From TrEMBL:
One Pfam family recorded for the sequence: Peptidase_S24
GO molecular function: serine-type endopeptidase activity; signal peptidase activity
Name assigned to this protein: Signal peptidase complex catalytic subunit SEC11
Gene Ontology biological-process entries: signal peptide processing
Occurrences of domain Peptidase S24/S26A/S26B/S26C (ranges): 39-144
Residues that span the membrane, as ranges: 19-37, 162-178
Catalysed reaction equations from the record: Cleavage of hydrophobic, N-terminal signal or leader sequences from secreted and periplasmic proteins
NCBIfam families: sigpep_I_arch
Subcellular location: Endoplasmic reticulum membrane
Native source organism of the sequence: Senna tora
Length: 180
């Protein structure tokens, strides 16, 4: 009868060990993703090295769901560049083209005006009340490349939150049930 108790204890020990291994694997996946993101931030010089185009304001160049890769350099921003900027007090960055740049000779500060390629007017209506120009601190990065349509996963999870929970649940289930 003692060998049955030993076998049960042995099975419980194996199950506990497997559960701990799965938790460690999940932690490694999450920490790897964070390290990759932080590494991209260091390499690109941008606080957000990858963004998803959320609207059709830049069509036909960039469509809704395209992923943009950003880079921030010390070079002055020039007319025609596509930049991602953030307005003070707003959470969602905007992807638009620079249509005008004014540089003050005394301070070297640049004043930037943007416009979506598919929009009729410049972006002054998007800026905060009384703000007519963007400054360098508003710019998060310059578009240096893109992947078409890959960002639709992000858009769908944002617009339909239930999909996010289904995906997270499915990934968690996959990690728990996978064998080494």
């Amino acid at each position: 009868m003692g060998w049955i108790a030993d076998t049960v204890d042995s099975v419980k020990s194996i199950q506990l060990r497997q559960a701990l291994i799965q938790i460690v694997n999940l932690g490694l996946i999450v920490s790897s993703a964070l390290m990759i993101w932080k590494g991209l931030m260091c390499i690109t010089g941008s606080e957000s090295p990858v963004v998803v185009v959320l609207s059709g304001s830049m069509e036909p160049g960039f469509k809704r769901g395209d992923i943009l890769f950003l880079h921030m350099s010390k070079d002055p921003i020039r007319t025609g560049e596509i930049v991602v900027f953030n307005i003070d007090g707003r959470d969602i960055p905007i992807v638009h083209r620079v249509i005008k740049v004014h540089e003050r000779q005394d301070t070297g500060e640049a004043y930037i005006l943007t416009k979506g390629d598919n929009n009729d007017m410049d972006d002054r209506v998007l800026y905060n009340h009384g703000q007519n120009w963007l400054q360098n601190h508003h710019i998060m990065g310059r578009a240096v490349g893109f992947l078409p349509y890959v960002g639709w996963v992000t858009i769908m999870m944002t617009e339909k939150p239930v999909l996010k929970y289904i995906l997270i649940g499915a990934l968690g289930l996959l990690v728990i049930t996978s064998k080494d």
